[in-house]
Amino acid sequence: MEPMVIEVRGVLQKRKHFQLGPIDLQIPQGYVTAIVGPNGSGKSSLFRLMLDLAKPDAGEIELFGERVGSGDDTMMKQRIGYVPEQAIDVEDSLRADQKAAFISQWYPSWDLNRYQELLRRFEVDTSLKLGRMSKGMRRKFDLAIAMAHNPDLLLLDEPSSGLDPIAWKTMIDAIHRYMERGDRTVLMASHIIDEVKRLADYIVFIVHGRVLGMYEKDALLESWYSFYIDTGEGAVNWKAMPGYRSAEPNGGSMYKVITSEALEAERWCTASGVHITGKQKLELDDILTALIEQERLRIRS
Ligand SMILES: Nc1ncnc2c1ncn2[C@@H]1O[C@H](COP(=O)(O)OP(=O)(O)OP(=O)(O)O)[C@@H](O)[C@H]1O
Questions:
Q1: What is the pLDDT of residues 245-280, one digit of tens each?
Q2: Pairing of strands 4-14, 19-28
Q3: What region holds the ABC transporter domain (predicted)?
Q4: Which of 21, 83, 192, 238 would give a disulfide with 247, using CB separation of 3.0 to 4.6 Å?
Q5: Separation of alpha carbons 149 and 118, rounded Å
Q6: CA 252: distance to chain centroid?
Q7: Is the shortest distance between the CB of 86 and ligand 1 below 6 Å?
Q8: pLDDT tens digits for 193-242?
Q9: Distance from the first to the final alpha carbon of the chain
Q10: Cα-atom radius of gyration of the chain, to the nearest Å?
Q11: If you average pLDDT over every residue of the chain, what do you get?
């Protein structure tokens, strides 16, 4: 098994109207892991805890085997590139190259050539003050800054927010290239299904501050299906179907049934004489919707 770059153990953060956790999570080295969840589910809060920008009420986080918040973390932070969800306002009056010059002092591995190459590819106008940049250009600049010291770990909070389609493709390509070496790690929060599908090896679903599971992406997309089933005259005990999630009438004696264990469910149907007339893979957003619904029912019960 590959080493873990991030280990989150029993992390809890209590706020007036929101509780994050307790969260247990392990992020493996050498892969892109995407955190997917609705607005306000706690994705940015989790990033901030990982970077010691906020303190948990309980639990602990380790990055590269070192406990976050336990002392001088300069070396640890030098191995990380972070793109926050919101650009930092206090830097608005700086020009791009002033910020880069400032940041480069913190990172012994700062690579000027790489920085300039990223700016060229993203078409960032470095003569502008940061506060004068459009939202998308600022985002591209932040990405270039986060990647220019060749970090071992990239933490990206909704990296494509504000990017036009061309910049989006450049970003996807830049992340693919960054991962080519094989030992680097990305943890990103994203709402963009296409982005998650193209980049992620693993997906973490987070809803209402709780992690609902971490899945290998390809296995996940192979296992969630809608089956269209003709029940004929008889009733079917849906709950006995492996991975059963929901069943809704679909006209006449037809039902649309969602399972998260497609292979086993299909075998079960064959063995039980249940006739599948059609099947369809679920997209990531449909899977998330089904998980959110289940979480709502769990909270209500
Ligand atoms: N500084 C803060 N003080 C109190 N509550 C906060 C603070 N920051 C965030 N919250 C609350 O914590 C919850 C989680 O917010 P967070 O920004 O982590 O979610 P998110 O999943 O990143 O959302 P989005 O997808 O909208 O970016 C929300 O209910 C939010 O209102």
A1: 999 998 888 999 999 999 999 999 999 988 999 999
A2: antiparallel
A3: 3-233
A4: 238
A5: 11
A6: 40
A7: no
A8: 889 999 999 999 999 999 999 999 999 999 999 999 998 877 889 999 99
A9: 38
A10: 22
A11: 92
d(CA 19, CA 137) in angstroms, rounded, equals: 34
% of the chain exceeding 90 in pLDDT = 67
What is the position in ligand 1's atom list of the atom closest to the CA of 191?
Answer: 25
Give per-residue pLDDT as tens, 37-80: 989 999 999 999 999 999 999 999 999 999 999 888 888 899 99
Tell me the CA–centroid distance for residue 19 and ligand 1, in Å.
10
Which pair of tokens denotes residue 74?
């300069």
Report CA(41)–ligand 1 centroid distance (Å). Answer: 7
User: Model pTM?
Assistant: 0.92
Q: What does the alpha-carbon distance between residue 97 and residue 149 come to, in Å, rounded to a whole number?
A: 15
Q: What's the angle, vertex CA 144, arms to CA 139 and CA 145, rounded to 5?
A: 95
CA torsion through residues 72, 75, 79, 81, sign: positive
The whole-number pLDDT of residue 1 equals 66
13, 17, 43, 45: residue to mutate for ligand 1 pocket, most atoms within 8 A of CB: 45
Distance CA 279, CA 274 (A): 13
* C-alpha span between 81 and 143 (Å, rounded): 9
Q: Tell me the two tokens of residue 17.
A: 């109207």
Cα distances (Å, whole numbers) of residue 48 to 43, 110, 251: 9, 23, 48
Residue 285 to residue 301: CA distance in whole angstroms: 24
Q: How far is Cα 208 from Cα 190, in angstroms, rounded to an integer?
A: 16
The three-class DSSP label of residue 227 is strand
Please report, for the chain, how many H helices and E strands are present, in that order: 10, 14
